[in-house]
Design brief:
Blueprint: H1 7-19, H2 25-36, H3 42-54, E1 58-65, E2 73-79, H4 81-98, H5 103-107
Antiparallel strand pairs: 1-2
Length: 108
């Protein structure tokens, strides 16, 4: 069963998958800027990561404390197998729909 995701949720989940293990909010913000040429708010990314975690699509753990962060720890996110399966199902559904768009409309 595919989990229902909004566009922003799908983008955040895709970026977590792209970045691999130990993804944190700032790395997602940076990837939005680099990959999608889009500025996003760190708070909205954090809220979305927690929402994706509640849906079982990502999991998190606390990283070690660093001097750069004044001794604070980062919450690190990783995509789950369910998250990967959800992205694959969404990709397949999207590709299936694209097959039905008349070629002339795409060229016009």
């Amino acid at each position: 069963m595919t989990k229902e995701l909004g566009v922003f949720e799908e983008q955040v989940l895709s970026i977590v998958a792209m970045l691999g293990d130990d993804v944190y909010g700032k790395s997602v913000v940076d990837a939005f800027k680099e990959q999608l040429q889009k500025e996003v708010n760190l708070s909205s990314v954090h809220v979305t990561l927690y929402r994706l975690q509640d849906k079982g699509l990502v999991k998190s753990r606390m990283g070690g404390a660093t001097n750069d962060r004044g001794g604070r720890r980062k919450r690190l996110f990783t995509i789950t197998n369910t998250g990967l399966a959800t992205l694959q199902q969404m990709k397949d559904a999207r590709e299936s729909l694209w097959k039905f768009i008349p070629r002339l409309k795409m060229l016009g």
